[in-house]
Amino acid sequence: MGKTTAPDKAYSVILATLEKEHRLRTIPPAPRKSRIDLLSNDYLGLAAEADKYADEFRLRFPDAHFTSSASRLLSRANKYHNQLEKYLEHLYRRPALLFNSGYHANVGIIQALAIPGTLFLADKLVHASVIDGMRLSGADFKRFPHNDMKKLQRLVKENHDAYDRIIVLTESIFSMDGDIAPLGKLADLKKQYPKVMLYLDEAHAFGVRGKRGLGLAEETGLIRQFDIIIGTLGKAAASAGAFAITSPEMKRYLINTARSLIFSTAISPAQAAWSIMMIEKIVELSDRRLHLRELSTNFVKELSRRLNFESPSETQIVPLIIGDAAEAVLMSEYLASKGFDALAIRRPTVAAGSERIRFSLNALLTQKDLDHLISAIGRYK
Hints:
3-stranded antiparallel sheet; 14 helices
């Protein structure tokens, strides 16, 4: 008989390999008040200021409970879920449907869209939840090079007659490179090919871009050109959950087919109520959006001018490409010692050879903060 081993030993081997390759992940410790937070997606600083809104919340929503106790389809309608959807519908002028998270939204909706005759075409750098949704759906899918409209148009043209619908999936602001999708060109593609549907994940744009913070689709005037828009509430909105903006018919369809909606306990009424209050704040924070844009632009320019570091970023997400996992970890640790929390991003989150430090800027930062950060990076370099 062959040698036997404990059935879980293989997992330990995988962990040892990850550690050897400097890719072993751990949950970061609680933040130190002495450090500047460049880790979180609290882009407008609302989460950092949450305590100052606590009294207003308790006064406005005294009956908002902390659990829904069931999925929305099993329990009675809750007024705060409904109010949040109605408020989003008022802002977007289109129906809204709540989900528990951006991951739940992408996986559940993409699976529901995958009826026979469907082809998905996804940008190479879309979020893992979009990729998981396509894989779990069982539908045909292809991935095109990042923001390569020529390749995308070629794929649409080659497959247009073979499928009943072609669903193009992309993000507006990409979470690791901080660049943006060519939304106008995507809208033009849809006009040219009648079978094309457009699916836009605005997770990192909601709250940050657009006159009222509704995202890049608002900023470009193209909200109605996208069949489904996903927004998340756990980033700039300082809450939790997500939503889909779509047509009345598609909302009805998703209520009946999106498994992550049907089979998950709904977000709590308290979370929905808090989201209403936070989005009300967001709509009025155009000054913070402008400040964040200016900070981000200046940071990228100064990285190039002073340190000869080129970043692909066009937004508040600014990656510093290192190209080596061990070096990225060392740099992250060095920056922490200088008062800056910034995460080392390694594969499989990013491709091998593109390991990086990801700086997630927020509107509470000052230009002086970023000048000190650039100086620290320069000393490390």
